């Protein structure tokens, strides 16, 4: 059975691109903001990894990470940030909030895949 990845990004073209790239190895679900993603999680969906953007309407990535990490049920799900914000302040803020990795857009799809594999391998040990 394929591992599940939740991709959250308000730019549909980007989330579709990531989903298309990952779908040969993973079951990928896409949501356009943190509120949609939390609602999906609360419907008993538990992905093996969450990849989120930071800048989104309704609920941004950082607030979403906080919500996930504070919920006892989802707090163990690794969260990776994929954002165009490249300052070390943003990266540090996300890592402190509980993100396990941070990649800056535009990204190399092969690097993304390797990072995902590493996260999932480390999580399932």
UniProtKB/TrEMBL annotation:
It comes from the Bacteria. SUPFAM superfamilies: CheY-like. Residues 4-120 form the Response regulatory domain. The keyword Phosphoprotein applies. Pfam families: Response_reg. The modification 4-aspartylphosphate is found at residue 53. Keywords: Phosphoprotein. GO terms for molecular function: phosphorelay sensor kinase activity. This is Two-component system response regulator. It comes from Neptunitalea chrysea.
């Amino acid at each position: 059975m394929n591992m599940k990845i939740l991709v959250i990004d308000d730019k549909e073209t980007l989330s579709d691109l990531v989903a298309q790239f990952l779908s040969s190895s993973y079951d990928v679900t896409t949501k356009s903001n943190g509120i949609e993603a939390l609602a999906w999680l609360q419907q008993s969906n538990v992905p093996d990894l969450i990849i989120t953007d930071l800048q989104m309407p309704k609920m941004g990535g950082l607030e979403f990470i906080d919500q996930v990490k504070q919920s006892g049920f989802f707090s163990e799900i690794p969260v990776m940030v994929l954002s165009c914000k490249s300052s070390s302040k943003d990266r540090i803020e996300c890592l402190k909030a509980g993100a396990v990795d941070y990649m800056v857009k535009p990204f190399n799809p092969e690097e993304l895949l390797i990072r995902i594999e590493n996260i999932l391998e480390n999580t399932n040990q």
